[in-house]
């Protein structure tokens, strides 16, 4: 009991002291450190300090109506930042500012820094940085700000500049581009091109034509007077230095520029360009306020007002809730800082007047996909009338760049969600269009649309499809079209298509066409999306009759030798048996069994069938003959049995046609054909290889397709086409008949490349090609195509191993032996008849001989 109370008291004390150390309201600990680095400001120190002190007195009285703030002065930056500080105002050199910021970073203070020019700004979510810039020398800071804010992100840059940038300023600009500051900006490699004072157009062209974007990169920073801008833009375009990959940033500083001057440059912009402008709209006026005093007062004013609002807010909330609740919901130090920072920034943006005369604007050309946004009747007017130059941001010394969009719109956002028209037609499996009952196309699938959907994701566009030849769809694809493939030749592009693409009614053709040299003169092809090979469709080789299966284990000459051996071994045995003196010597009679040649032959035959004769010769000589015959019999019989089993198991298949040479070899028995006007037709016509010439010359005119299939199944005809198309035919035939009567040749020849088509001057072709390459590399295109192809079925099995595992012997296999039995039966009947006849004849003869005896 006592113990519990003791612990309770200690806990209570702890909580109390903690609460006192961190008072809950902002007022009680708002304290401001003002650091004026004596080294940096020099003699001005006392003046600045007095000014600030005066201002603070004024501000506390006039601006801070609720609560108060303590302030402390320091004259060097190496201070120990106290925990209870809520804000710091520093006037110091760049490096000291950063050092101070680093040392105080963990304390989550609000840092307001007034520093020298060309200084990277402190992170904008933690601090406010105001560089003190001499009028007319703001360019290095501007470039540094753009870079450190990640507004452009270049690894290398070509700087083209003229006399507007003097030598001193050049050094500073280069430093701000290359400087590897403590921020996360990558180093930049630069190439410099200086344009002399009175440069002629000829020289300019010459200089610019030496630029190789492969070696120096495709990013250009042009800092020139406004007279040169147009010339450089023209030359850059004519030298193909402006395209969808390269980025051009023009910094125009020498004159007052307004938006209408900049928009006049749009006539030099073309589809696909990435060009941005940063231009000087500063004014010169008596009323321009600059300097440390102005900035420090302005930022303090912002701070005081923000603090006042914060305190008021907190009071309001705290007064409505209990102390405990307030403890739970009161803002943390971080939240307070963010609140104050946000307020001060807003104040500076709205009411900031220091250095406010220096003001730059940024604009950028919106060019991608503009050409296709026009309605048809505008097409003949100039494309420039659609290209726009959009204002995207501004820059001021006090608050740096403020952007409302990307500087390089298209590099960041591709086509920016524009809608591009494409043209297509129904041609599975490349383009599969589906229509509903009212004849509207409702669904676009197929390999080409899979690719285009992927492109549209990556390049940020949507598309509308203009469908030509709708009738084709109506006829074929209301129901299932997974198993169809049209016969539309892909190598001849309709002129309607070519016109639409060339006159830019559509951005590209969403259809796969064969890449041919002829068409390359009119339009350009993308990289191939698929490569189709040709092969031929033949009848599946038939199983041969199995009637003579029992003969097949041995070849003809083996059979011949075997019968010769039986026939010759009989007499040999007989004679050896006969001439052996053993019988005489032992006095054994030679009657019976082996006493005639005929009997010996039967004996040998019986032995061969392992039936064994009744008699065995008594003489050793004859026994050796019989013994060795048995050995032969053993070998022959075993071999025959083994082989017969094998032949029973493996069906005997006809010799198939698998290669072109075999096809040409069967010229007498089969005809062949292919689609006229196809890519294959052209290739064969121009081929110099003999077998292809023969293939072309001896082909027959095309048959109608259903008839064709019947002929192929009967083994009379062979059809040559894309392997893919033949697979479709096979699958269809299989589904209709449930038999695998068709097979593909093993030879594959003539790669036919299929690609999308685009206009010749379209700037996006390299990008599209890169995307297609990527899709190939990850195997997506292959997979998509597989999805449209017929699935494997049992007809795909290798033709040589059919039904091996599960063959039960049937009548087909056994018929041969029954035939033999039947044959034996016939022969024996015949012999019986002969014997009868012979007998009759013999009886008659006997009667004839006996008659005289009788008479
Ligand atoms: C920007 O324009 C003003 C007013 O014309 C001029 O005084 C200043 O020097 C210009 N800035 C640069 C960097 O040239
Ligand atoms: C610059 O200050 C003037 C007042 O001195 C103000 O009218 C103007 O809007 C300010 N410009 C900007 C961009 O804040
Ligand atoms: C596509 O463009 C729009 C419009 O500029 C942009 O808002 C969007 O972020 C872009 N999408 C991608 C993925 O870049
Ligand atoms: C066919 O599709 C079009 C466009 O999506 C739609 O307006 C129309 O109502 C559809 N017709 C039928 C019968 O579904
Ligand atoms: C479409 O295909 C499915 C199976 O793939 C089949 O069951 C159906 O009958 C087919 N419909 C038509 C109209 O052919
Ligand atoms: C482009 O060509 C197509 C097809 O020939 C035609 O219908 C269209 O009117 C043409 N457009 C222009 C602007 O010439
Ligand atoms: C487009 O085709 C033309 C003519 O064949 C060719 O000169 C040009 O290089 C092709 N364009 C591209 C980007 O490949
Ligand atoms: C073998 O054939 C029988 C009847 O023809 C069938 O039921 C069995 O599934 C087959 N076995 C194999 C492994 O194919």
Topology:
Blueprint: H1 2-21, E1 31-36, H2 38-41, H3 45-62, E2 70-74, E3 87-91, H4 94-104, E4 110-115, E5 127-131, H5 139-148, E6 156-161, H6 167-178, E7 189-194, H7 201-208, H8 213-216, E8 219-224, H9 226-238, E9 247-252, H10 259-263, E10 275-280, H11 292-320, H12 323-329, H13 333-351, E11 360-366, E12 388-396, E13 400-403, H14 409-413, E14 418-424, E15 432-435, E16 441-445, H15 447-459, E17 461-467, H16 470-476, H17 495-502, E18 508-514, H18 517-520, E19 524-525, E20 530-539, H19 556-579, H20 582-586, H21 597-608, H22 620-649, H23 660-665, E21 671-674, H24 679-686, H25 690-697, H26 705-713, E22 717-722, H27 723-737, E23 742-744, E24 749-758, H28 765-777, H29 780-788, H30 811-854
Parallel strand pairs: 1-2, 1-3, 3-4, 4-5, 6-7, 6-8, 8-9, 9-10, 14-17, 14-18, 21-22
Antiparallel strand pairs: 10-11, 11-12, 12-13, 15-16, 18-24, 19-24, 20-22, 20-23, 20-24
Helix pairs in contact: 3-11, 5-6, 7-9, 11-13, 19-21, 19-22, 24-25
The protein binds 2-acetamido-2-deoxy-beta-D-glucopyranose (NAG) (8 copies).
Summary keywords:
855 residues; alpha/beta; Rossmann fold; Helix Hairpins; 8-stranded mixed beta sheet; binds 2-acetamido-2-deoxy-beta-D-glucopyranose
